[in-house]
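re: ur question from yesterday

yeah so i grabbed the chain u mentioned. its 436 aa long if i counted rite. heres the sequnce exactly as i have it in my notes:
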Amino acid sequence: MTTANTAFSAEASRALGGPDWLRARRLVAAAKLDGLALPSAAEEIWRYSRIGEFDLARYRPVPWERLGDPGEIRAPGGGPYALEAGVHSGLLVVHDGRVVRQELDPVLEAKGVRVCGLATCGADDEIQAILGSVAAESPDFFTVLHDAFLPGGALVWVPDGVVVEHPIVVIHWCGGDGEMTFPHTLVVAGASAEVTVLERFGSPNTDHVVDSVAEIVALDNSSVRYLSVQEHGPRTWHIGLQRAHVARDARLRAAAVALGGDYARLRSETLLLEAGAESEQVAVYFGDGNQMLDFRTLQDHAAPRTRSELLFKGAVEDTAKSVYSGLIRLREAAQKAEAYQTNRNLVLTEGAGAESIPNLEILANDVKCSHGSTVGPIDDDQRYYLESRGVAPDEAERLIVLGFFDDVFARLPAAALTGPLRRAVIDKIEHRKAAR
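ran it thru and got these structure tokens back, copy pasting raw so excuse formatting
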């Protein structure tokens, strides 16, 4: 299948507005579309997915005229999502991929920090040189489509040596019925800079597709903490890429929480480019109803004395499904590297299911590396221990599930959000009990 006869043709991309540099960028990607086929479950990277259900012809991009002029402030200050994030240094509200509100502490602005919409501040040559360069190393059909219909996106730019004490919050709201949106976030931390970025995605109960890309660049000796939370409505599909480049002695802590959507797929990839680079990738996911939550991860070591650690934990109930497929790649240059990968899954009811496929690709001969995965029900001994001490069966299950996730919650780079996210997990557990 090609895109030639859909609303996502090269001609449709060419008709979009925006600054000249953005239109030119879109046209380069659009020229590739006609020769690309939609992926299928026959491809290993899409194995176990629901991609066979996807019909691009059912959707259209958001009309350009509805997005409004770049830079126009058309949204309030973030609502409950921003409040739950606690004290923050900056805020971007993104509607259907276009920034509609931006705020930044004036002290940080004076130091050169930039928190703004790419459609308005992306004309800078330095920004354009980085934009797309990280994602381009891991292309697929959806990243090309994303580039061909990109309306702008969010930029978080922290100059060398600047420490941003409180998080930068990026709130994405998407949701037109029968529409597809293309949020993009670019985070750049200069040498010895520090920043925390919290992204939250939400949508109403509409038939909608989100095709998102987040690029993270951590330059020498920088520290980036990044959290993505997906809380879409029950009919939204989300197909996302998060990819990071981590330079010499830099540190990345990347986390994901996936609770919403009908089908939600995330590729979380980290390239450790230079000696001393470190990354941590953690995730919490909980599927119920007919949801499918699909994760594909990559820990890619391209230099010596690098270190990565991954811990993904999920639970499924009702007829929900989850997929985890992860690869540790240790290239020939990655001598004395360390890499660890763990995936744990709870299957809470008959009819639910989880797939876990850890993989190793080791070309270096002086490394430390391990991977492991489990899929199974709640431990009967744990349940018996609590119930024998007077804890009701339903309460025992709730405590066990929350305890299962606690070590990941403790590692999320956003302490203020831990309480609300734990409550969201409890709501999922209680929803099934209420339906009995």
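noticed a couple things. The two ends are 43 Å apart (CA to CA). also The chain has one domain: 61-379.
anyway ttyl
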